[in-house]
Amino acid sequence: MKLSIIIPLYNESDHITDCINAIKKQLNQNFELILINDGSTDNSETLLNMAVADYDKKVTYIKFKDNHGHAHARNVGIQAVTTPYFMFVDADDQL
After folding, report:
1. What pTM was computed for the model?
2. Quick one: CA torsion of 24, 28, 34, 36, rounded to 10 degrees?
3. For the Glycosyltransferase 2-like domain, which residue ranges apply (predicted)?
4. Which of 26, 70, 76, 91 is the most exposed place for a label (fewest CB within 10 A)?
5. What's the rounded Cα separation, in Å, for the pair 31 and 10?
6. pLDDT tens track, the chain, 95 positions
7. Inter-CA distances, 71 with 10, 11, 29, 58, 88, Å
8. Residue 32 in contact with residue 58, Cβ under 8 Å?
9. Could you tell me the sign of the dihedral formed by the alpha carbons of 51, 52, 54, 56, in that order?
């Protein structure tokens, strides 16, 4: 793998499924997903688990009990990277 895609999220139940599905449709699948749930209180976790259930690539899921902020979630995502390159995708983005 050459790329890690880091997706920090907090209460993104309206967007996370579309974001993950768009990533799964990419032709070049040479990447890992790093999902950082920053203490969501909605059903983001359930939707996220459903979206990646049939995904056969490497997925790292990190969940915080409490919200620590977007910058903290990004920094934790960087620490989880196992590839030479990484990028951030916000949960309301579609590639």
Report:
1. 0.93
2. -50
3. 4-94
4. 26
5. 23
6. 799 999 999 999 999 999 999 998 987 888 999 999 999 999 999 998 898 888 888 899 999 999 999 999 999 999 999 999 999 999 999 88
7. 12, 16, 27, 23, 11
8. yes
9. positive
